[in-house]
Each structure stands twice: as structure tokens, then as C-alpha cells.
Design a protein that fits this description.
The chain has 517 residues and is mainly alpha-helical. It is built from 19 helices and two strands. β1 and β2 form a beta hairpin. The protein is globular. The protein starts with 12 loop residues before the first helix and ends in a 12-residue tail after the last helix. The relative contact order is 0.11.
């Protein structure tokens, strides 16, 4: 007896996307630490600092496999400097420990890395990623120590000293190490890069693991603080984060991931039901000074504002006065004492404030922040930012914030210029991207055009059709490059998937409120 299946039921795209939204929420519940890509920089530091940690050989092989043909590691251009320094120093350290089984491969990879660095470090200062001004001098110094008496296979590098990029002053590293040597506390945000302290980082006074056992939510910082495999929460954290071999720059990223995913999906009108426990945990993460990306990191205005926005969209609003400590009177700093300023942080602040229009003083603050954002628009219409390598992310954040919460003529004109830049930079295949077309950057452009473009504009409509068609062709088949800024470029997996899903969802014409029981 044979059974013949009938025609498969027709599934509406909205049903599929609703299921995908449910899957994203379920993934955040199942893995509260969050999902992010592995980092060459962080993995290299773990190879050098914690050879006793299970997975060491896997991490060394992973580094060898990811070296580029030009000898570098990591992203394009100056983004390769930090990961290449870390990987090269790690391989030199392994060679010095007499790993004879792979000495030839290790020496060859280190030689190619050194050759790449000799040119890259002389080409100017690398991009302004967190702690780059500390990491580059620290790793350059470590590599120079290796080259004073190079291991076998690298004798031709004896006595060579790598250049320090112009604009990077090692004085700040000296001061940080001085604080550690004196047993004085370092600024909380520096715990994330504690490994730059070298031997002084070991059990540094005033630095303690957070709730999850991590120091500064960083495998490298935790390994530097621990020093040796002594039982306790820090060792447990390293075992957990390193169980698959390569490690991310930051873990856990609990609040960051949940706030961004829920905020993106709610804004796009996805039919989103959030477990009450998850919403309650997100609400509890906002203390009197705001919310932090995850345990072990300081609270910041960016995470606080996105969390407040997401909670408001879920019907669980909190008082926006938690942002008051970050108000400089002109704009909002990401954290007190910040060097520079972040466009996307202020766009997210605008989103959070916009959910509470009746709160005393909000209207005036919205006008002030919107004006500050307009002033920072580039001549061609884009915005750039310190937390992402692509201007498409910053432009998406600012365009939606201005379009939703700043109705003035100056803001509308800035929005129109930003929309014009998006229209002008769409690629022939319908995608957008800084170096090449990517699903992530295409999603940001689609969301920005759908939310900020003038209704009925035929150019916007045509660009959206082409962009959405390109997204459907990717269909989740590739994760794409790492574009977010930490000590190394990284990719917050679920956040990117949420953006791509939201961009696809915005084509359905169906909007349902997000809810939290």
C-alpha cells in the first residue's frame, strides 16, 4: 500500500516571519548570554594568556585557518591592525613554548603577520575602536620583546622593532599600568580591556569578576586577571565561554541583545509576544544609573535608551529620568567622561524620550538632541558613528529617530538628505554596503527608507522593491561580515537577524502590537 501526499498547504509570508520572530525570542530565552561572532583579537589573547584552558589547540588552529593571503587577520584596511597584532603575538608565544609539532606552520604564519604589520602600522592610526589606544601599544611592545630574541624560524626578525602608528601615544597605557601597579582602582570601563595591563592585571586590586564570573564581560580580561587555572567563578566562566574553541570579544551580552532585538521587531510591527519573565528581567536590568550591555560592564546611555524604548513598546515603560546622568546639556554621552560622542547613542536617546512626550522637559530635550544630530550630518547626507563600521547603521538609527520624533523643518530637511544618500548609494543588485553588499546593511537601508522616506515617492518605492528582492535572494544563507565595533569587529548574530527579518516584515503591510504578558 502506498501513500501519496497531497499538495503542500500555502503558507502566508507573514506566518513564516511571525514564526521567525518567535524563534528569535525563544533563542534569547534559551541562551541568555547572547550570540555573537568569534573574535580573532580575543581568541589570540586567550591563546597567549591561557594555554591551560581546554580548547587551546582548537584556538591555535582557528587562528591559522583565518589568516588572509596578505598575512593579516580581521577586517579591511585599518581594521586588520588589532586582530593581526593579537594573532601574531599569540603565535610567537606558542612558538616560544616549543610547540614543535606545528613549528613550521606557526613560524610561517607569524612571519607573514609581521610582514603585514610592518606596513600596516606605518600607514596611520587604525579605526577608533574601544581601547585601541591601549591595545596597539601593549601588543606592539609584546611583539618587540619576542623579536629581541626571536624563536627558531624567525631569526631574520631579530632586533626589528615595529612602528607605532602616528597619533597613538603610549603614555595612557603607562598611566593605566601605573594605577594597577599601585593597587589603585581603574575606571570601570577599562576592566573590559584589563589584559593591556600585562602582569599587573593578575588579581588587580579593585577589579573583581561580575555575576557571571567574567571580568569586564571579556574572556581576555578574565584570563589576564585570573593568571592561573584556580577554581572559582572566573575559571568556570572561561570554561563555559571557551568550550567551542574561539571566543567573542564580549560575553554575556544579555541586555544589549534583548533590547536591540525586541526594539527592532516592535518598531517594524512584528506580531511579537514576549514571555513575561524575559520582559521582567529586561526591566530589572535598568538600575538607577541605567542599564549595562551585560554583567561586568558599566551602565551606558546607549543600552539604557534602547532598553527603555523596547520596554515602552512592550507596554512596560520605565521613567526616562534614568537617562539624566548622561545629559551633558548639549547631547547625551555614552558614559560620563567619554572621549568624543556617539551619534547612534543620541538617536536611541531620542527614541526613548519620544515614547514619553508628556514627561516634564522631554519636548525641549528632544528638540535639543535632534538639533545636535542634524548638525552632525555629513555633507553627502549620511551619518557615521563610533560603534559600527558602516554608515548605513548610523544613518538608519538617526533617520528613524528624526522622522518619528522631530517634526521640525530642519530635521525633515536632514531626513530628506539622508534618504537621498541611501537612494544614491544603492548597488546595481539592489543591495547596500560599505565594502560590498550585505544583508545587514541592506536591511538598515530598507528600514530607513520605509520609515523615513516620503510616502508616495516613486524613487523610494522602487529602491524598496529592489532591496527587498535582494534580501529574499539571500534568504539567510549567509551571516555576512562582522561590522560592529568592540576591541575587534564583531557580529551580534540575533540582532542582525532581527534587522533582516524586520526589513522583510515591513513589506507585508501588517502591523501588530508587541505584547508582554
Amino acid at each position: 500500500m502506498s501513500l501519496t501526499a497531497g499538495p503542500a498547504p500555502v503558507t502566508h509570508p507573514g506566518d513564516v516571519r511571525a514564526a521567525q520572530a518567535r524563534d528569535l525570542v525563544a533563542a534569547m530565552v534559551d541562551n541568555p548570554a547572547g550570540e555573537t561572532s568569534a573574535s580573532v583579537y580575543e581568541t589570540g589573547r586567550l591563546v597567549a594568556l591561557a594555554p591551560w584552558l581546554p580548547g587551546h589547540d582548537v584556538r591555535v588552529s582557528w587562528l591559522l585557518d583565518r589568516q588572509r593571503g596578505d598575512g593579516g587577520w580581521g577586517g579591511p584596511g585599518g581594521y586588520a591592525v588589532v586582530p593581526t597584532l593579537s594573532a601574531t603575538e599569540a603565535l610567537l608565544t606558542v612558538l616560544r613554548r616549543a610547540d614543535q609539532g606545528r613549528a613550521g606552520a606557526l613560524a610561517g604564519a607569524a612571519h607573514r603577520g609581521l610582514t603585514f604589520l610592518a606596513g600596516a602600522l606605518d600607514a596611520g592610526a587604525p579605526p577608533d575602536l574601544p581601547a585601541t589606544d591601549l591595545i596597539v601599544p601593549a601588543l606592539r611592545e609584546a611583539v618587540d620583546r619576542h623579536l629581541a630574541r626571536p624563536p627558531a624560524g624567525l631569526v631574520g626578525w631579530a632586533g626589528v622593532r615595529l612602528p607605532l602608528p602616528a597619533g597613538l601615544d603610549p603614555g595612557r597605557l603607562t598611566r593605566v599600568r601605573g594605577l594597577l601597579a599601585a593597587g589603585r582602582p581603574v575606571p570601570e570601563k577599562l576592566a573590559h580591556a584589563l589584559e593591556v595591563g600585562g602582569d599587573r592585571a593578575h588579581r588587580a586590586a579593585g577589579v573583581r569578576p561580575g555575576e557571571a564570573g567574567a571580568v569586564g564581560a571579556s574572556p581576555a580580561a578574565t584570563a589576564a586577571w585570573l593568571g592561573h587555572p584556580e577554581p572559582g567563578p572566573a575559571l568556570d566562566y572561561l570554561h563555559a565561554v571557551g568550550r567551542r574553541g574561539p571566543v567573542p570579544c564580549a560575553s554575556p551580552i544579555t541586555v544589549f541583545e534583548r533590547a536591540w532585538v525586541l526594539g527592532i521587531l516592535a518598531r517594524a510591527g512584528a506580531p511579537l509576544t514576549v514571555p513575561g519573565s524575559l520582559a521582567a528581567e529586561l526591566r530589572a536590568a535598568v538600575g538607577v544609573s541605567g542599564a549595562a550591555t551585560g554583567p561586568g560592564l558599566p551602565a551606558d546611555a546607549d543600552t539604557t535608551s534602547v532598553t527603555l524604548y523596547a520596554l515602552a513598546r512592550l507596554g512596560r515603560p520605565l521613567d526616562v529620568s534614568r537617562l539624566d546622568p548622561y545629559d551633558t546639556g548639549r547631547h547625551f554621552c555614552t558614559w560620563p567622561g567619554e572621549d568624543g560622542a556617539s551619534v547612534t547613542t543620541n538617536a536611541h536617546v531620542l527614541d526613548a524620550l519620544g515614547q514619553h512626550p508628556a514627561h516634564p522637559g522631554v519636548a525641549a530635550t528632544v528638540d535639543r538632541v535632534a538639533g545636535w544630530l542634524v548638525e552632525r550630518q555629513e555633507p553627502d547626507g549620511r551619518w557615521g558613528d563610533r560603534w559600527h563600521a558602516s554608515a548605513y547603521y548610523a544613518t538608519y538609527c538617526v533617520l528613524l529617530a528624526l522622522a518619528d520624533h522631530a517634526p521640525g523643518a530642519a530635521a525633515r530637511a536632514a531626513v530628506d538628505r539622508g534618504v537621498g544618500w541611501l537612494l544614491e548609494t544603492q548597488r546595481a543588485d539592489g543591495s547596500w554596503g560599505r565594502w560590498s553588499g550585505t544583508a545587514e546593511e541592506t536591511a538598515y537601508a530598507v528600514l530607513a527608507l520605509a520609515g523615513a522616506g516620503r510616502p508616495g515617492d516613486p524613487r523610494v518605492a522602487a529602491a524598496l522593491v529592489r532591496g527587498r528582492r535582494r534580501l529574499s535572494e539571500w534568504d539567510g544563507s549567509t551571516d555576512g561580515p562582522a561590522l560592529w565595533h568592540d576591541k575587534d569587529l564583531y557580529r551580534p548574530t540575533l540582532i542582525v537577524r532581527a534587522a533582516v527579518l524586520a526589513a522583510s516584515w515591513s513589506d507585508d503591510g501588517v502591523a501588530a502590537p508587541a505584547t508582554a504578558p
